[in-house]
Amino acid sequence: MAVYAIGDIQGCYKQLKKLVKRTGFKPGNDSLWLCGDLVNRGPQSADVLRYIMDLGDAAQCVLGNHDLNLLAVANDARKMKQADSLRDVLDAPDAPEMLEWLRKLPLLHSDKNLRVCMVHAGLHPDWTIKKAGKLADEVKNALRSKRYSEFLHRMYGNQPTHWDTSLRGWDRLRFITNTMTRMRYLDKKQGLELTLSCAPGRQPAGYQPWFTYPSRRKDKWRVIFGHWSTLGLHEHKDVICLDSGCLWGGPLTAVRLDCRKPVYHAVSCGK
């Protein structure tokens, strides 16, 4: 069985179909991992969701910030921005089914046999893979609960910035969500900096990419993530960023994970 992971799709349905074909993915035998931001900004978000939903158990997805944004807009927890392209989902006759499927997705997916985990943005340096999985489950449970709309209303905000095991309630859930779906940089005290999106090397002094933090817990697992188009396709020791900026004219990229060395596939997206 082959396992392929694909970076941020963001409604680029035609490119997704082309890339999946190029990998040789077979739904009956193989597994397809999608590292979040399935929707928004691109032209065919609804088609992307329908395609992945139809794959059933062959597809493993995690939520990205744009996916959560769609859920928030659908639940009146956030106003749609000018740059959003969510109408094809919200106005679709099967919108309830797509939104219900989306809100039941986790923030983290892991495979003990491969020793690979997938998250949209990243993991806090203090978290082991096991700890991150338990924290991700807290958010998953909130989204699957009867109070999920309240969670979406409370989800937004940049506080708190620092992890503390004593965090409780909405602050705790917000920190976990921000870390796994929005994080790029940390300050010298492991505080989240959620406004910077530039490529590494262009950030202000005192900030560094989360995956280069010296004290980051390493469990001999590989971490697959997206979210960072200015970083692009990037390998750094035990992490791989798959957001190669398809939406912005870069390629859409997939990596095969069940090999000793990662094997990459890509299709051009153009502007």
Features:
single chain, about 270 residues, alpha/beta, Purple Acid Phosphatase, chain A, domain 2, five-stranded mixed sheet, 13 strands, about 30% helix, globular
Please specify the SSE layout and strand pairing.
Layout: E1 3-6, H1 13-23, E2 31-34, H2 45-54, E3 59-61, H3 65-74, H4 87-90, H5 95-103, E4 108-111, E5 116-119, H6 129-144, H7 148-154, H8 169-181, E6 185-186, E7 192-193, E8 208-209, E9 222-225, E10 234-236, E11 239-241, E12 252-256, E13 263-267
Parallel strand pairs: 1-2, 2-3, 5-9, 9-11
Antiparallel strand pairs: 1-12, 4-5, 6-7, 6-8, 10-11, 12-13
Describe this protein's structure.
The protein has helices at residues 13-23, 45-54, 65-74, 87-90, 95-103, 129-144, 148-154, 169-181; strands at residues 3-6, 31-34, 59-61, 108-111, 116-119, 185-186, 192-193, 208-209, 222-225, 234-236, 239-241, 252-256, 263-267. The longest helix is centred in the middle third of the chain and has 16 residues, at 129-144. The mean pLDDT is 95. The chain is built from 8 helices and 13 strands. By secondary structure, the protein is of the alpha/beta class. The protein has one domain (3-267): Metallo-dependent phosphatases (Purple Acid Phosphatase, chain A, domain 2). The protein has a 5-stranded mixed beta sheet, with helices on one face. A 5-stranded mixed beta sheet has the order 4-5-9-11-10, with helices on one face. Helix 2 (45-54) crosses helix 5 and helix 6 crosses helix 8.
